Amino acid sequence: MSEEVRKRGSRATRFFLASCFLAFCFLLPGEPHVPSRTLAFVGDVMLGRGVAQALDGDWEAAFAGVQPWLARADLAFANLESPLTTAPLLPSSPSVGETEGGLYDLRAPPEAVAALRAAGFDVVSLANNHALDAGGVGLAETVATLDAVEIAGVADWSPVYQSTNLPIYRIIAFDDSLTPLDLEAAAGAVASAAERADVVIVSIHWGGEYQAAPGPRQQAVASALAAAGADLIVGHGPHVLQRVEWVGETLVAYSLGNFLFDQPYPADCRWGAILRVTLQGDRIVAVEAIPTVAERGCVVPAGPEDSAAIHNRMRLVDYESTNLRIYEQPGAQTVNLFQSLLLGVLQGATEFLPVSSSGHLVLVPWLLDWPASGLAFDAVVHWGTALAAVAYFWRDWVSLVQAAFRSLYRRTSRSLQIALARGKVWAGGDAFSLESAAQEPLRLPPAQDLVEVPDARLAWLILLGTLPGALAGWLLEDFFEGMFARPVAAAGFLLVTAALLTASERFGRHEHNLDKLVWLDALLIGLAQALAILPGISRSGATIAAGLACGLRREPAARFSFLLATPIILGAGLLKIVGLAQMGGLAAQTPTLVAGFVASSVVGFGCIHFLLRYLQRRRLYPFAVYCAVAGLACLPVALVRGM
C-alpha cells in the first residue's frame, strides 16, 4: 500500500471515528435502548365441530388470512377451547352440558394442531371450562400433542416461562368459570411470578357468556391481580368482545371474544381481534387491535363496517388520552392526499440534499401533529427516490453492471487457464504435463480485471461500500426502529450532520476523482452510510462528507454517494413492501402511496441534478447551517414535550 493511500486512510479513519463520537454523544444522555418485543393475543379457538367440518382436513387454511400478524410477533397466544384428543367425551365433566342436539362436544382430532402450528402460536391456555371435556386422559393427550410441535400449553395454575432473549415473560392461567377463583391464592401466585420474571401475563377464563361489558366480578378480579403485580391481563370466556382498559399500570383486555368458533349467533360472536402489545423492557409502549371475523372455518381480516364496530366495542378509539400509540386496522389510510404529496416532496428533496430525509420525516409530522404515515408509505417514498437515482444514473448503472460481469468472467477465465497450466489436463485420453505446457505458453487475456477497468473497479467498490449499511440495518433493526420514535434524537442528529458537513469542508483536501478511490475509502464511506441509518444523520451528507475526508472532490463525492445509496434503498424498501403485502390491506392506501411515490421520484430526480451542478462550484456550508438551525429549533421543543 502506497504512502499516499495510508495517509488518506488515516485521515478518513480519524474523520469517521470523530463522526461516531459525535453521534453517540446524543445517544448517551437518553435512556439506554431496550429492544422492543411484540406479543399477539387472541381469544377463543375451537377446532372441532363445525370448524373441523368446514376445513375438512385443510387445517392450515384456518388462520392463513391473518397468519402474518401472528407469525411476526415475538410471542403469539390463544385460548384453546378444544381438547386435541381421540379420547371419548366424558359426560360427567362439569363443562359438558346438554344442547338441543345432544351434549356439547368441542373435541378436535390431534391433527388439528397443524392449524396452530401454521399460524405461529407459541402458547395456548388450557385453563378453561372445556379443557377436561375428555377427562384427564384427553388433557394429557392435548398437552403431548402441543409439545410435539413446540407449543406450550398453560394449564390451570401452572405457569410457564417464555423468553425471546430479554425480557422474560411468565404466563399464568386461571379459570374463574367452573368454580370461583380463590383471589388470595391467585394474587399470591401472581406476586410470586412477578419476583421471577420481568413481565407477568395473566390469562383468565371468566365472565358471563355473551355479555358485551365486563361484570363486577371480572373487574374485582382484575383489580386484585393487577395489585399483585400482573402487567397484562387477557380474558376470554364470554365469546364476545369486551373493552380494553387500564387498571392502574396494568393493561386489561376483559375478553377478546371468539377468534375461531362455529357459533353463528348472536352476530358479535363472529367478531374477534388480534391484540398486539409492544413492550420495551417491562413497559408497554404500544397497543394495536387488528379486527377479525370468523367465517366458514377460517379467520379473516374484518371489513370496514365490522372493524369500526370492533374498535368501538374494545374502546380503543377512546385511548388518545393515554401515552400509547394506538393503531387503526393495518391498511387503513393514515395520511390524506395532501399530506402524502407534501411528505413525498419532502422525501424527494431531503434524500439527496444533505439535510436528512429521515430526520424530516420524523420531525415534520410530529411538529404538525399529523397521523403516522405508516411503514408502507415510508417504504414507497423511499422507492420513489431510489427510482430517481436509477433513472438519473441509468447509463452509469448499465456500464457498471456490464463491466462487473465482464471483469468477473475475465478473472474466472484467467484463473481457470492458469490452474490448467499448473496441473494436468486430460483430453481425449491424452495428458499433457506442465513441461509440455511450458514449451507452448498459453495465450492469456490481458489482466483487465477489478484493478484496471475503471467501471468494474467502481462497481466492486460500490458493492463493498453497501455492506456496512446492509449489515447494520439487519443486525440492529430494533435499535434503529426505536430511535425513529424519538424526535429528540432526530433533532440532535441534525446537529451531528451539520458538524460533519462543516468538518469535511474545513479539513478535506478535495483533490481526487473517483478513479483514485481505493477499497479503504469505499469501506469508510460505507460505514458513514451505516451511521446515517440514525434519524437526523443525512445519508447523502454523511457519505459526501466521508468522501471529502478521503480526498475526493465535491461532485465525484456526491456522485459516489448517490450510486452507493441506490442498492440499499431498493433493498430495504423491497423487504418492507414484501412484508406488508403479505399482511394485506394496502389497497385502501393506493391513492396516497401513488401520490407519495410520484412526488418523491420527480423531486428526487431534480434534486440530484441540482446538487451535482451546485457542488461543481460551491461548498456545503449552507446545508450545514440549515441542519444546525433546524436541529437547534426542534431540540428544545422535543425536550419540553418529553420526546
Describe this structure in words.
With 643 residues, this protein is an alpha/beta fold. It has 2 domains: 36-327, 4-Layer Sandwich (Purple Acid Phosphatase, chain A, domain 2), CATH 3.60.21.10; 334-395 and 451-641, no CATH class. It is 51% helix and 15% strand. It contains 21 helices and 19 strands. It has helices spanning 3-25, 49-55, 67-71, 113-119, 135-148, 183-196, 216-228, 304-314, 337-352, 357-368, 375-392, 394-422, 434-439, 454-475, 477-483, 487-507, 519-531, 539-549, 554-583, 590-614, 621-641, and strands at residues 36-45, 75-80, 98-99, 102-103, 123-125, 152-154, 160-163, 168-175, 199-205, 232-236, 244-247, 250-253, 258-260, 271-280, 283-295, 298-301, 325-327, 425-427, 430-432. Strands 1, 2, 5, 6, 13, 14, 15, 16 and 17 form a 9-stranded mixed β-sheet that branches. A hairpin with a 2-residue loop joins strand 11 and strand 12. The radius of gyration is 30 Å and the shape is elongated. The chain starts with a helix and ends with a helix. Residues 26-33, 96-102, 317-333, 424-442 and 447-451 have low confidence and may be disordered.
From the structure above, extract its key features.
643 residues, alpha/beta, Purple Acid Phosphatase, chain A, domain 2, 2 domains, 9-stranded mixed sheet, 51% helix
Topology readout:
Blueprint lengths: L2 H23 L10 E10 L3 H7 L11 H5 L3 E6 L17 E2 L2 E2 L9 H7 L3 E3 L9 H14 L3 E3 L5 E4 L4 E8 L7 H14 L2 E7 L10 H13 L3 E5 L7 E4 L2 E4 L4 E3 L10 E10 L2 E13 L2 E4 L2 H11 L10 E3 L9 H16 L4 H12 L6 H18 L1 H29 L2 E3 L2 E3 L1 H6 L14 H22 L1 H7 L3 H21 L11 H13 L7 H11 L4 H30 L6 H25 L6 H21 L2
Helix pairs in contact: 1-16, 1-17, 6-7, 9-10, 9-11, 9-20, 10-16, 11-19, 11-20, 12-14, 14-17, 14-19, 16-18, 16-21, 17-18, 18-19, 19-20
